[in-house]
Amino acid sequence: MAKSQSANSAVLEISRRKSKTITSIAVDAIENMIISGDLVAGERINESLLAEQLGISRGPIREACRSLEQAGLLTSQTNHGMYVREVSLDEAREFYELRGAIAGLAGELIVKRADDSVLEALSDLVDQMQIAADKGSTAEYYKLNLRFHDSLVQAAQNQALEDTYRKIVNQLHLLRRRGLVQEGSLQVSNQEHRKIVQALVERDPQKASQAIRTHVANGLTRLIASL
């Protein structure tokens, strides 16, 4: 019995969804490689190697790369393929300025909207980062640092703000780790985190906003000093 038109359409839709899901997995995997430093700025994307590592075909890898190019993490060079994007200092400065303004607003919203359990979770992350800083574990600190800032933005309970923020920080992953590797920077960075949480606990919107803006501005200063 021949397949009906509806059945054929269903098969095509299922195939499309599977392809989309695999591509999404590839996007997440490549993005995580960039965040972790497994893929560094200026490095060429080896589609065949990535496909082998992830156990998928090159098609979803290619689609994922196009998506990440649109997100600003990859860049294409004619006849040479895709490369991890290199962000200039001028671009980084602009991103940090915008990030500071958005994060400052997030601080004000957190004061108004977050309950005590959210603030307790943020405080716990600061304690965990302090342990990592005391051990001098940059890799561990960096992961916790990302969780802390992600949690801050989520606590603002504004999806538009969160989406915009993530587009900015995604393009700073290659640079932000460098600003944390200077001697003593982990300790200083976490002291700033503690001031942010304290301002939030005091439910002071202006103080919270200023603490976050200062932390972001100091992050740019640390980055510049590391170059």
Explain the overall architecture:
75% of the residues lie in helices and 4% in strands. The protein has 227 residues and is mostly helical. The chain folds into 2 domains: 5-84, Winged helix-like DNA-binding domain superfamily/Winged helix DNA-binding domain (Arc Repressor Mutant, subunit A); 89-226, Four Helix Bundle (Hemerythrin (Met), subunit A) (Up-down Bundle). A two-stranded antiparallel ribbon has the order 1-2. Helix 2 packs across helix 3 (58-70), helix 4 runs antiparallel to helix 10 and helix 9 (185-201) packs antiparallel against helix 10 (205-226). The chain is globular, with a radius of gyration of 21 Å. Residues 10-14 have low confidence and may be disordered.
Keywords summarizing the entry:
227 residues, mainly alpha, Arc Repressor Mutant, subunit A, Four Helix Bundle (Hemerythrin (Met), subunit A), 2 domains, two-stranded antiparallel sheet, 10 helices, 4% strand
SSE layout and pairing:
Blueprint: H1 5-36, H2 47-54, H3 58-70, E1 74-77, E2 81-84, H4 89-113, H5 116-135, H6 138-155, H7 159-170, H8 173-176, H9 185-201, H10 205-226
Antiparallel strand pairs: 1-2
Helix pairs in contact: 1-3, 2-3, 4-7, 4-10, 5-6, 5-9, 9-10
